[in-house]
Each structure stands twice: as structure tokens, then as C-alpha cells.
């Protein structure tokens, strides 16, 4: 029973050693620790196997020695089992201590996370400030080099304006006075043309000659138009309105022309 448990422990340690060797070298502390445990367990197993073998003395041993060996065999088995259990407890305790150490290490890393974050923020801010200062100095350096090169190229050169540019006194275009005169004549022509068109298309008869052209008969009498006082007032006000609008148009034309002429 003790040898079987010890063999299982050795198999577990060898599997753990193979797993560690797949990630680390033989100089790693965990690899060395597992190798030492495997050596101790193999040494203990050898001692158990050696102590549990019956010592046959052949014909020379007596019956008393055989009885002592028979009685000491269960005791040796129990002692070996006890040692195996103690080794197992020791290994478990080491594993627990290792896990606790790893937990403490991870906890310390977690506690350092805010500090590291603050340090990273300080480093980033310092880097940004240094970068801005460097860009400003680089821009100044480039400006200085450009000014120096320009000064070197322009050494001995002096510029002086011999003939200053002459600005026009009045605008070249448009000629407002000419536009006003042309507009006045165009308006008069349009008014005459509109009046002629209205007279041409008007179908009423205003003279004896026009009536004779339509009817080849002589005119015997003529009935004058009979205007009522209301018609006379309306005719009077219509004449005033026409004169007023005509005067307003003339005043606007003259004022516009004068303003255009004064403003150049």
C-alpha cells in the first residue's frame, strides 16, 4: 500500500517535471525543486523496498529470527505508509505555500495598477509637453534658417520705388451719365411708340374725315359731348394726376442723372 502511493506520487512529480521542462530550462528553480523531490521519493522508495525484503539466512537462521522478521514486517509497512503520507502532506503544504505566494504576488500587482496608471499618465503628459516644445523649437530653427538664407541672398540689394503706381481718379466703368442720357431717350421713344400703338389700335372716330372714310355720306350735323359736373371734376383730377406723375418722372430722371454725375 505504501509503495503504491509512493509510486503514484513519483508519477505525478515526473509528469509535473515534464510539464515544467516544456516551458522552462533545467536551471529554473521550480524544475530543480521537483527534481529534488523526485530524488528524495526515489531514495525513500529504495529504502522501503530494501527494508521490506525478508532476509533469508538459509539453513543457518533459527526460528526466533523468522518470527521477529514476521512481526516487524507490518510495522515497517506502517512506517513506510506514514513516511509517504508525511511526504504527501509536505508536498501539499509546499503547493499551498506556492499558491499563496502567487496570490500575494498577483494582489501586489493589482495594487500597483493605479500607481502604474498614474505614472503612465504623467509620462504621457510629459511626453506631449516635450513634443510640443520640440516642435516649437524646430519651427523657430527653420524660420531662423530661412531668414538667414534670405538675408544672405539679399546682401547688398536695396529696393526703391522709382515710379509709384498712379490710381485712376474716377472709375473707368460704368459711365453713369451716358447710361442716364441713353435711358432718357429710350424712355421717350418707348412712350411715343406706346402712344402710337394705342392710337392705331383705338377703334373710336374723332374727326369728320375718318367718318367719311368709313361711310361715303356727308355729315349734316354734329352732336357735341355733354359732360356732367362729375365728369368735369374727374377730367380735371385726371389731368392733374397725369401732370403730377409726368413731373415726378422728370424730377427723378434729373435727380438720378445729377447724382450719378456728382458721384463720378
Beta-strand segment tally: 0
How many separate structural domains? 2
Structural class of the helix and strand makeup?
A: mainly alpha
Tell me the distance between the termini: 127 Å
Assess the beta-strand content as a share of residues.
Answer: under 5%
Q: How helix-rich are the residues, as a percent range?
A: over 70%
Tally of alpha and pi helices: 6
Largest sheet: none
Series of H and E elements: HHHHHH
Mean pLDDT: 77
Low-confidence stretches: 54-60
Radius of gyration: 65 Å
Shape: elongated
Could you characterize what this model shows?
With 264 residues, the protein is mainly alpha-helical. It is 77% helix and 0% strand. The protein has 2 domains: 2-53 and 70-140, no CATH class; 176-220 and 239-262, no CATH class. The chain is built from 6 helices and no strands. α2 runs antiparallel to α3.
Feature tags:
264 residues, 6 helices, elongated, 2 domains, mainly alpha, 0% strand
Topology (elements, then pairings):
Layout: H1 2-21, H2 29-52, H3 63-153, H4 176-201, H5 208-214, H6 229-262
Précis, in short:
By secondary structure, the protein is mainly alpha-helical. The protein is 77% helix and 0% strand.
Amino acid at each position: 500500500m505504501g509503495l503504491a502511493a509512493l509510486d503514484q506520487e513519483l508519477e505525478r512529480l515526473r509528469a509535473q517535471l515534464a510539464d515544467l521542462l516544456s516551458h522552462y530550462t533545467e536551471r529554473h528553480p521550480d524544475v530543480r525543486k521537483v527534481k529534488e523531490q523526485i530524488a528524495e521519493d526515489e531514495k525513500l522508495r529504495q529504502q522501503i523496498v530494501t527494508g521490506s525484503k525478508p532476509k533469508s539466512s538459509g539453513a543457518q537462521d533459527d526460528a526466533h529470527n523468522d518470527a521477529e522478521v514476521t512481526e516487524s514486517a507490518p510495522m515497517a509497512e506502517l512506517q513506510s505508509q506514514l513516511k509517504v503520507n508525511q511526504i504527501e502532506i509536505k508536498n501539499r503544504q509546499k503547493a499551498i505555500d506556492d499558491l499563496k505566494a502567487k496570490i500575494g504576488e498577483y494582489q501586489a500587482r493589482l495594487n500597483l495598477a493605479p500607481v502604474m496608471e498614474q505614472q503612465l499618465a504623467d509620462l504621457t503628459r510629459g511626453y506631449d509637453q516635450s513634443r510640443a516644445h520640440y516642435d516649437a523649437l524646430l519651427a523657430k530653427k527653420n524660420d531662423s534658417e530661412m531668414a538667414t538664407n534670405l538675408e544672405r541672398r539679399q546682401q547688398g540689394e536695396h529696393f526703391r520705388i522709382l515710379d509709384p503706381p498712379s490710381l485712376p481718379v474716377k472709375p473707368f466703368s460704368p459711365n453713369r451719365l451716358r447710361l442716364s442720357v441713353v435711358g432718357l431717350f429710350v424712355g421717350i421713344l418707348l412712350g411715343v411708340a406706346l402712344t402710337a400703338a394705342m392710337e392705331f389700335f383705338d377703334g373710336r372716330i374723332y374727326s369728320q374725315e375718318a367718318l367719311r372714310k368709313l361711310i361715303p355720306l356727308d355729315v349734316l350735323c354734329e352732336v357735341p359731348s355733354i359732360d356732367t359736373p362729375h365728369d368735369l371734376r374727374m377730367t380735371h383730377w385726371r389731368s392733374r394726376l397725369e401732370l403730377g406723375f409726368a413731373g415726378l418722372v422728370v424730377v427723378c430722371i434729373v435727380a438720378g442723372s445729377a447724382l450719378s454725375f456728382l458721384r463720378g
